[in-house]
Amino acid sequence: MTDEKKIGILTSGGDAPGMNAVIRAVVRSGRAVGLRVIGIRSGYAGLIAGEAFELRDRDVAGIDRLGGTVLHTARCPEMYSDAGLRQAVERARALGLDGLVAVGGDGTFRGAEKLSRLGIPTVGIPATIDNDIPCTDYTIGFDTACNVALEAVDRLRDTSESHFRCSVVEVMGHTSGSLALNVAVACGAAAVLIPERPADLEKEVLSVIRENRRHHSIVVVAEGCSVRAADLAERILAETGVETRLTVLGHIQRGGTPTSMDRSFAALAGCRAVELLKSGAGDRVVCRRGGTVVDEDIRSALAREPVFDEALYDAFRAIRR
Ligand code: F6P
User: In whole angstroms, how far apart are CA 36 and each of 29, 30, 261?
Assistant: First the structure.
């Protein structure tokens, strides 16, 4: 890339705490190396519609402390059609974009891969509370979501303990149990249900709750499980006699002030994306592996198989009561 080139940045899919810290890092590090940075509103939908405006250093001051995304976000089915994709490419060209940073989850990366293939150098940055992108150990927003869910479960525990009740808590995560497992370990749950390891309900949930009847039990259920949390709560009451309450944490888990971990990885990832585009590389995703920021070809990243945290699951099973 030569000087005074323009790069775009968009956030796409479900918002995640830390997306704003990425935007700030891309704007500031991009401008520091002579790039103009164009913010695109509402993800790929905004790209197709041409909703774009220039971002300067002061425009992003202090946004790293904010949850959500100041650029707004959307899921964009048009990116799955040839016509929608063509419009996105034409619009990127009309905006004079020499590169694009796409911040989001798996679907966002798929869009980025298609744009790269059609000649718009695009770099993906992983941001989703689900932590479900195989090429990276970590996705921006996950730590904040874990802590928000943990605080909520700690509160539930106060009331659950007082009444010797069971609390069934449904957490997000789409088809992944990563959020549920991490929350279950951190909150000292009696049982966890995750899609990756279907449980024997009698052995791993009901009998544990019967044993705990003079105490309390927290059961964490990932939303992607085949067992619905509401059905499980009814079954626990029916088959153990323990009074049980259901709480669905829902979108509360997606909001709030990003943690230090989310802000710092966001800053590193934003800077790496700018370095890549500045050096003329597109078709890449930024990842974290073993605590280090790396980047990988977007196609090989998308071809990777999901990795399950077996050690954390074993630890959960060893310490739950
Ligand atoms: O991908 C993030 C996520 O919050 C998932 O955990 C959840 O399944 C989904 O998005 C909810 O999507 P929406 O905000 O569109 O209801």
Answer: 10, 7, 28
